[in-house]
Amino acid sequence: MKKLLILLSVSFISLTAFSQNFNFGAITYDDYEFDRKKLDSNANAIVLKEFGTASVQLDDATGRLELVFDYHVKIKIYNKEGFTNANVIVPLYKDDTREESINDLKASTFNYTGGRFVETVMDKKAVFTENRSKYTRLLKFTLPNLTEGSIIEYSYRLKSPRLFNFKTWEFQSEIPKVVSEYVVYIPGIYNYNVSLRGFQKLTDQKAEISRECLRISGANIDCSKITYLMKDIPAFIEEDNMTAPSNFKSAVYFELSDYTNPSGGKVSYTKTWKDIDYELTSDKSFGSQMKRKDVYKDLIPSIIKDATDDLGKAQAIFNYIKKQIKWNNYYALYTEDNIKKSLDSRSGNVADINLSLVAALSAANLDAEAVILSTRDNGTINKLYPVISNFNYVIAKVNIGDKSYMLDATEPLLPFGLLPLRCMNDQGRVINLKKPSYWIDLKASQKTSTNYILSGKLNAEGKVVGTLTTISQGYAAFNKRKEIKKYSSPDEFVEKLDERLTKIRILDHSISNLDSVENLLTEKYEIEFTVNDGSIKNQFYLSPFFINAISKNPFNLNVRTYPVDLGAASDERIIINIDLPEKYNLLEKPKDLSIGLPNSGGRYLLQTNLDNNTLSLSQILQFNNAIYQPEEYPYLKEFYSRIIQNQKAEYLLKKAD
C-alpha cells in the first residue's frame, strides 16, 4: 500500500509563479463557460479557485496570540445535484474560556442574465449557528438564487486561539478543484511538524522569509512564508467500508513541535511516550480514576460471588458496569468528573464507564489496563510522534492467563471481548499504571456470522409455506439486537418486518437469546410466500434469491486509492429446501458457482439442485479479511459483479409427464 503520510521539509527557494488571492466578484465569462470535461465530465460542481492564508497575530484587545485564517472560494454549479455545495458549514471550536469566531463573511451568487452577470448577495439572516457539542458550534449559511449554471463565491476570516494545530488545509473535497492554494506565515519562534496526507501530489511548493511579520513585547519576529499549490484535483469519492475520509483526502497538517519565548526559554510540545505515560497516569481525570479501587472494593464480593475463575470474575464485573452506568453518547478520553459520581448517577461518557471498568477489575485483583484509541470517524493515529489530542476514546483491557480481552462497557448488547465497530481502527496505545505504554492491534475477536435456513413446501395454491431460521453471531447479532430493541417489543419489531417484506408473509415467530448476548441470537419465523397464483401448474419460474439478494455492487469506482475496511471478517450461509407436491423437471437454474478472492481473501459458493422432489440451494459468502488494500479493489468489484449477474437467473420448473 502506498504511504499516506509525507513529511514536508521547508527549503527557502522560489519555484514557479503562484496565483495569489483573487478579487471578490470578479466573475469572467471563462468562469461561466468552464468545461467540466477538463477535470470530470460527471461533476455536479467544480471549484474554480480556492485560496487561503493562515498567520499568527496579536489580538490587541486581549493581548493574546491568535491564529487568523482567511478563506476564499469560487464554485461553478452545473446542475441541481450541485446545489448542495451552496450549503456551507464551518465548525467553530471552543473551550471553557475561549472560542473561535467568524468575521467579514461575504457570500454571493452570480447568474449570467441578459449578457451580463447579476449578483445576488446573501442576506445576513441566512447565517445561523448551531451547538453541536460542548466544544463545537457549527456556523451555517446557504447561498441564494441558485440555478443550473450559477457561480457561487464566499469568503470569511476565522480567528482561533488554537495554535497547536495551526490550520489544516484540505486540497481534496467531494468535488473537483481547478486550483487550490494555501499560504502560511509561521513565526520563527514556532516550530511545526508539517505533513501531507493523501495520494495527490503538490503541483508546487515554495518557502521564503517574511520579515518582521509579528511583533511581541517590542521584539520583531520573522516568519517562514510557505506556499502550497495543487492543481487539477480530482474529487474524493466516499464509498462504504472506509474509516475517516480525513485519513485519505489530500491535505496538509500542522502540529506544534516547540515554541521559543522571545525573552528566552524553549517549550517543547513534541513529547515522548514516557512523557505521555506520566501525563495520563497522573491526570486526575484519567490515571487517578484508574487507581480508584476504593469505589468498588465493597461491591466486588457480591458482583463476583458466582464466579469460579478469573474469567468468570471479569465477565461478571463487565456485565455489572454495563447495567449500572448508561452511556450518554459522548466520546471522551477523560472522565467528566470522577467514576464515583458516574456510578452514583448511573450515567457517564466513554471514559467514565471504561475507566470505572478498569478500576473495578483492579479491585478484584485482576490485571487491568486502559487502551486509548482513535475511533474510525476520527482518523488514524500518526505514530511518528505522540500527540494526545489525536486520541478520542478509551477502553479497558484485562489480562487473564496467557490471554488478553479488550472491553467496552458502553454497549449493553455487545458480548464480553467484542469491541464496537467504531473502535476497529488500526492500533491503540495500552496505558499501564506501572509499566511503559505500548501499541496493540485493534482487531475484532469474532467474525460477523449469519446462517439462514429455510425448510418449506410448495402447496397446490402455488404458495411456499415453511420455517425460516436465522442464527446470528458477532456484529451481525449485535446489529440485529439493536434493531429489535428500537421497538417496544419483539412483537412490534416482527409486525414492522412483516410490513416491509412485501413478498413474504410472517405467520408466527419466536426470538431466542435477545438479552443473552453471549449466546447465538436465533430468530424463527413461520412464513409463506407466493410462487404462482395456482393457475399455472405445468410450468413456472421461481427465484431462489429472496434472502439477502445482492442486487447492487458496493464497489463502483474505477480506481479506489484507499483500503476497503469491513471492520471484521464475515461469513454468511443460506440453505433452502423446498418440497414440491408433484414430480417436476428442472429446465433452467442458476449456474453452480465457485469463485474466490486472491490470497484466500474470500469465496462465494453456490449449488442448486432438484432431487427427489426437493428443490435445494446452498450459498456461502465469506470475506476472510477485515481490510482489503487498494490493489485488491478490482478483484472485489469483479467478485460482486459475477455474483449479481448469476443471481439474476431463476429456476424454471416443468411438471413431469
TrEMBL record:
Species in which this protein is naturally found: Pedobacter chinensis
Signal sequence coordinates: 1-19
Keyword Acetylation: no
Listed SUPFAM superfamilies: Cysteine proteinases (SSF54001)
Stated name of the protein: DUF3857 domain-containing protein
InterPro entries, alphabetized: Papain-like_cys_pep_sf, Transglutaminase-like
Domain Transglutaminase-like intervals: 299-387
Keyword annotations of the record: Signal
Superkingdom in the source lineage: Bacteria
Pfam families in UniProt: Transglut_core (PF01841)
